[in-house]
Amino acid sequence: MRAANTFDFVCENFLDGMWYKSADNPAEEEFSDNFWRLLGYNPEAQNTLSWRQVVHPEDSEKVVENDKRHLHSTKPLVVFEMNVRYIDSHGTVLWMKRRGKAIEKNGEIIGMSGTFTNITKEKDREEILMKTTRFARVGAWQYYPESEDLHWDAVTHEIHEVAHDFVPSVSTGVNFYKEGESRDTILAALEKALTIGEPFDVELQLITAKGNELWVRAIGKLEKKPGKPTVLFGIFYDIDRMVKAEEDNHKLSVLKGKSKALEQFAYIASHDLREPLRTIMSFSDLLLNEYLTDKDSEIREIGSYINKAAEHMDSLVKGLLDFSLLNKRSKPDIVDMNEILEKVELNLAKSITETHTQIIYDYLPSVKGHPIEIVRLFQNLIVNAIKFKKADTNPVIEVEAKKIPRGWAFCVRDNGIGIEEKYQEAIFNLFKRLHHKDAYEGTGIGLAVCKRIVEMHNGSISVNSVPGEFTEFHFTFLTE
Q1: pLDDT bracket for residue 384 (50, 70, 90)
Q2: I need a surface site. Which of 55, 265, 306, 464 has the fewest CB within 10 A?
Q3: 333-477 CATH fold
Q4: Strand 358-361 to strand 396-404: parallel, antiparallel, or no bridges (unpaired)?
Q5: Are 348 and 358 in contact (CB under 8 A)?
Q6: Which of 285, 292, 298 is nearest to 151 (CA)?
């Protein structure tokens, strides 16, 4: 087969389209038959149809300027690629990756040629991901240590309130963090990530380019692959509303849920907050299961981060809703505390068996209270005792009661890892976590719920603990 015939055969059977442009006539562009097929046209009927009639009007000049630059280049010839929109025979916009290179002969550029690849599906996936991340205020970033290049996506630019063409660097990026603890934390996290590969997940305060102060969460992970440049990549999202909601909800908890604001919050939590979270999780599941099937891809890992973050936020919102509804789902009654502990043991039977937990209590009194919430109180305390057990030690939990004026005093004691003194007051605050969520599951709401339930019974709760030895929760029920 002669060379010319071989080339024609390749053009005819090449899955993508091919194009050629002569330096003598740069205004015109020739296409292979398969290009027209990609657009749904009959190649034989398109002799009079020029490229300007099928390229998207907004991309026409972009193609002209790119080709002019390469046709008149005095630098070494390089392969370029650009994404260009074309209009198919049905009027639908198709995205094509247009790749090409100038052709040189005897030191003179005589034209250009290249290929087209239909990337419409990929662009649609990018659009879905972009809508999801913009809705969730979740951005992505990449840093290449060797070249010191830092790349932000559109959402990260929006969160920082900078122009879309702003080019960040590590130093300018760090300087956006509030001076002091936040800036020191991100500097330390970056140093550990780049030197020893330690991933980070930190919540910090940011000062945007417009001077607005907000809370953000930065997650990063270093990746090294043979033959590829080292990259530190991750996600970055705006948690300012959630943090401010935490502060507001702490104030509302002090008011014991009796104010109108807490009732409004309960409505928002059940409708306005959970609905968009479900939307985010649905889109994330769609991306992960239908489109992002490559388990090793960076974009799939980012999608997974979005999905996990949405699930965690949904758990927080549900916990807050339950917290706000305390004292509205049961009526006071005479409650046998022995029956309460039996019900808790039944509810936690699987966990108790798996951890060989021993729960010790003698005869306990009956009190007037809310049975559903009292079950929840003891269950939260026992779940924590099991969760925070010492390694290689079976949990032993003791429940005692003592008569006091106008009521009863209870103590729940365990032999777990204990709580440092400096945290013993703060643990009853909403969202207060002493351990990273990867080490111990939970939302940081459980002990705030316990405090609320005790206060419903006109009592108070406190903790006494020695790290590595024991933890005692003391609470009173003033129900007489």
Answers
A1: confident
A2: 464
A3: Heat Shock Protein 90 (3.30.565)
A4: parallel
A5: no
A6: 298
Find tokens 């809703």 and name the residue. Answer: 321
The C-alpha atoms of residue 305 and residue 234 are separated, in whole angstroms, by 9
What are the phi and psi torsion angles at 391 (to 5°)? -60, 140
Q: Do 95 and 119 meet the contact criterion of CB atoms below 8 Å apart?
A: yes
Lowest mean pLDDT among 45-59, 118-132, 345-359, 430-444: 430-444
- CATH assignment of 124-324, among 3.90.550.10, 3.10.50.40, 3.30.450.20, 1.10.540.10: 3.30.450.20
Burial 301-322 (b: 16+ CB within 10 A, else e): bbbbbbbebbeebbebbbbbbe
Cα 9 off chain centre by: 49
What DSSP character marks residue 259? S
pTM: 0.38
Domain boundaries defined on the chain: 3-118, 124-324, 333-477
DSSP string, 66-109: HHHHHHT--SPP--EEEEEEEE-TTS-EEEEEEEEEEEEETTEE
Which pLDDT band, with edges at 50, 70 and 90, does 403 fall under? very high
Could you check whether 3-118 and 124-324 share the same CATH topology?
Answer: yes
CA-angle at 394, arms to 389 and 395, nearest 5° = 55
Topology of the domain covering 3-118: Beta-Lactamase (3.30.450)
